[in-house]
Amino acid sequence: MTDYLTTGSKIHLTPLSPKKEQIKIEDIAHALSFMTRANGQFPEFYSVGQHSIHCMEEAQARGYSKRVQLACLLHDGSEAYMADIIRPIKKHLPGYLEIEAGLQGTIYEKYLETPLTEEEMAQVKSVDDNLLYHEFYHYMGEALFEEEPVLKSNPAFITEEFKTVEKRFLEKFHTLQAKMEI
Predict the structure, then answer these.
(1) Is-contact 166 47, C-beta < 8 A?
(2) Closest Cα partner for 59 from 5, 131, 9, 3?
(3) How many domains does the chain have?
(4) How many CB atoms lie within 10 A of CB 41?
(5) How much is the mean pLDDT over the chain?
(6) 145 pLDDT more than 90
(7) What is the pTM of this model?
(8) From start to end of the chain, where are the E strands?
């Protein structure tokens, strides 16, 4: 049995000890466009890729830095390599959390170069949680928090073709990356 995952681009990624050169944005965009939010429990398909794009757009609407916008787009990147586990279970799996943090850290290191500050991490978490609330309210009619968080963007919670999401994800990534290099 191998200790690596073969990605769509034929890279052998070792999730327990990932290397920056094993991380490819094309693999992230592709995988996240096929992965469903809420463990497939929403009444229609809504992908992690769409969620990530909506997070980036919300960060942009809030006026957060390009770096935070890119972090929001990439915040679920580790799921492209190790899938996802729902929050109620994930918090009870410390080994999983450590592996996920290491992989996500490698993704951030490759594309952001330096670790996120506490303030940047708080901004990403706020955006992610706010989108989570609105996704669940839209699809399940369930309010996850006592107070409804305000969104500054206007996400479209619709089913989109995989290839469309993958293409949009890559376009957003390349646009942000180019703006950060200026």
Answers:
(1) no
(2) 131
(3) 1
(4) 11
(5) 95
(6) yes
(7) 0.96
(8) 5-6, 12-13
